């Protein structure tokens, strides 16, 4: 992608994160004090277990450096607005889902640079090894992730009626942007996309299914409610693919690292749809 495409991608993510901010209040962050066990289990699944599973998949399948780094980049990202929508459809605990997304998004500003630096040092070819400026990446993440969320929350605080009216349109816009980003990335790397599809597809779906299963079982083991378990499962397995693609393109300046997140973005809805359909078949309301 050229610099213009990178700017468009960054603006797209900013719009998505602003839309997320419009749905947040301070109560979503205070919920960690009200439901500490559920929040702690959810964050552990997202920020610790998810990257570990990504690493194990990368070394277990002996992935190429490009795909391995893409998988680790994906595993480093928090859930996004899509996970909140899917949680709602699956009759999960939507308040918990929103809280986990909000808190994980803030914490990821610090965890993403660490995980990516580890991935680059672990999987990059020795002849092409690169490093990142963690502080610069943190600033970039603040601008495209945290700052738009804060602005959205401020707008919601000052203009609650406007935020309420924009809730559904922003979800639609965010979903549309996500689809357009996926299409744009596939088009920009069309010459090599098919050659990576087979290698990146299997670890992407493995990461999705394994982490969703672990998140659910962990919640059940600690005796959380079924809606809470569903929320943690989806938050763990449905990542912010747009953020992963943006980091690959802008921060790492390598669109090929976006291949795994792009394929993941195409596949993750299949497993999420299964959960939604299964929950509806049980008559959950």
Number of DSSP-assigned strands: 0
Query: What's the number of helices?
Result: 12
Amino- and carboxy-terminal Cα gap = 44 Å
The CATH first-level class comes to Mainly Alpha
Kindly report the average pLDDT value. Answer: 84
| Shape type | globular
Briefly characterize the structure.
This protein has 285 residues and is mainly α.
Task: Give the SSE layout.
Blueprint: H1 3-22, H2 26-34, H3 36-60, H4 65-76, H5 81-89, H6 94-123, H7 134-158, H8 160-188, H9 190-221, H10 226-237, H11 241-251, H12 259-281
Helix pairs in contact: 1-7, 1-8, 1-11, 2-3, 2-6, 3-4, 3-6, 3-9, 3-10, 4-6, 4-11, 4-12, 5-6, 5-10, 6-7, 6-10, 7-8, 9-10, 9-12, 11-12
Describe this protein's structure:
The protein is mostly helical and 285 residues long. The protein has twelve helices and no strands. It has helices at residues 3-22, 26-34, 36-60, 65-76, 81-89, 94-123, 134-158, 160-188, 190-221, 226-237, 241-251, 259-281. The mean pLDDT is 84.
